Amino acid sequence: MASTEKRKELEDYLKGLNVETVCEEHPEVFTVEAMMPYVQHLAGAHSKNLFLKDKKKKCLWLVTILHNRQVNLNDLAKKLGAGSGNLRFADEGIMMEKLNVGQGCVTPLALFYDKQGDVKFVLDSNFVDGGHERIYFHPMTNSATMGIKPVDFLHFVKETGHEPIIVNFD
Asked: How many CA atoms lie within 13 A of 34 on its CB side?
């Protein structure tokens, strides 16, 4: 399925939840650093997303943090009870299978594809406690950025059957 079709499915899903969004089109980007010049004028919190697995491949984790944060995977593993040294980046094939997105497009907005609830969602507490008017993610494509009000985003996540694990990264 092409990214435009996936984006349309997402937009329809959000519309069905009465979630209002704003979207900024930009050239295709594969890193947060490459994206920021196109979206830095948008007021709110921009995201960096990591798709991880534990060492024994028992758990998959989608970690969404502020775009300018660095994450120590050992420290994060301890916070999540996954044991030090047990988190690694998951293969793109697993990401495609579970979230229907490839590298450069990983987004918590893809959680609506994880019908089995195989992916645990970790969210930087700043997205909900930071007083942001909007928070920004890729809408199933890395050639656009979508803004959503934090309360609407949490409603979306819960409607997908996921309970966000809120973590303070400060």
From this structure: 11
